[in-house]
Amino acid sequence: MPKDLRSYIRQLEKSAPSELLYLNKEVDSNLEATAVCRKLELQDKLPMVVFKNPKAINGSRAEMPLIFNVFATRCKLALALGLEPNQDKMELSLSLYNRYKRLFQPEEIVNAPVQQVIKQGDKVNLEELPIPIHHAKDGGPYILGGSMITKDMETGAYNLAMIRCMVKSCNTITVHAEPHHHTGMNIKKYKDAGKPTPFAIAVGHHPSFYLGSLWEGPYGRNEFEIVGAAMQEPLRLVPSVTYGSDLMVPADAEIIIEGYIFPDRMAEEGPIGEHTRYYKTIRGGKVDKRYDPLAKITAITHRKDAYYQSCWIGHTEHGLIGAIPKEAVIYEKAKATCPGLKAVHLTPAGVCRYLCYLSLDQRVAGEAKDAILAAFISDWHIKYAIAVDTDIDIFNDKEVLWAVSTRVWAEKDVFQIRGCMGASLDPTTSIEDKKSIVTRVGIDATKPFGEPFSEVCEVDLDILNAIKVEDYL
Description:
Layout: H1 5-15, E1 20-23, H2 32-42, E2 48-51, E3 66-68, H3 74-80, H4 90-99, E4 107-108, E5 117-120, E6 142-143, E7 146-151, E8 158-161, E9 164-167, E10 172-176, H5 182-192, E11 197-203, H6 207-213, H7 223-231, E12 236-240, E13 244-250, E14 255-269, E15 290-302, E16 308-309, H8 316-337, E17 341-346, E18 355-360, H9 367-378, E19 384-388, H10 397-407, H11 410-413, E20 414-421, E21 437-444, H12 461-466
Parallel strand pairs: 1-2, 3-16, 4-12, 18-19, 19-21
Antiparallel strand pairs: 2-3, 5-15, 6-9, 7-8, 7-11, 9-10, 10-15, 11-14, 12-13, 14-15, 17-18, 20-21
Helix pairs in contact: 4-8, 6-7, 6-8, 8-9
């Protein structure tokens, strides 16, 4: 059977039932659903939450359940990749790194599950869906759990990315795609030609589908092949309702939203709580009003018993699903430069984007700084990169900060690179002249190469490894 969201749910029911929570009570998709998720989060609980009876945007009872926290724990993502749930944490990124090397060609099918129900023209109504409003001061409902599909108008190469889309009416949305993102580059080509950009949004699929669609390699690759690599099987496709075979869409998604982006129409977007867990503001503390391309929805197709999947922006699931593919790409690129690199971690303490830990076994003096530079080049989000020795667990912030506190001589181990491209949503970046500029900071927290250093004190490891605490109860 092909991988899809429901096969993953069955896997959780069988192998990790504590990672799945069904809630029967009616819930409002406007703020109430995320309040429930936040309550669980404050109790250190991050199960996939299936709200069986959500309200739609228009206040009516939605025809489909609403799902959050699909990606909220490494345990769930490990199971999705066929790994043991308690495996070494770096295995997630390494597994994905190895999967990306073997591409799978997509395959076209007929009678796609996602086209069991087709709505076009006057029947298109986004307000019938349980699309959530996430935060108290958000400007409206956002489609956040979908992967947007666009094509390079010159080469026909498909691109996939989780792009946020604000619902403006029953059949219009805004599309927030940074100009240097691949989706933004595709949109710009159509805009420069004075043409609308065809697109589709796949909502609800297997987690490995999203791990593939968030791959951040070179522009111009057919990312349906990358998704197949992440899934380890060909991605099944079907011609879209609006564009036929000119725009193929995932056959096993829960919902497909099709449409086109106007080349010359913009609409106010936001505000929305960002991945930083801040609202984007301008000097003086005012919430920044943004304007994004406006899009028209031409068709909505879905399964008869579809789930509506959302992703809670700024919280654990949003950070993790973005971090794992980034870690894999950073590892691949930095490893080529620094063979001593052993692991990479985009810590949640840096919203899984801005703070990168690098574990390496230095072969020569200076390799730690080279690894830091390679990480900066590999992902433009990174503002702070910290290199540590392999005796430090980079998945433990306390250990990394201990290394910084006890192994760093600031005059020679800390360096800055000014005037770098930054993320426009980063609240610390300069916004003068509409530019997002950041200073990158590298910290070499490794022990001096080839020189004596203070010995770490530890209990007897043979005794430690043999001890079972329950024997002392």
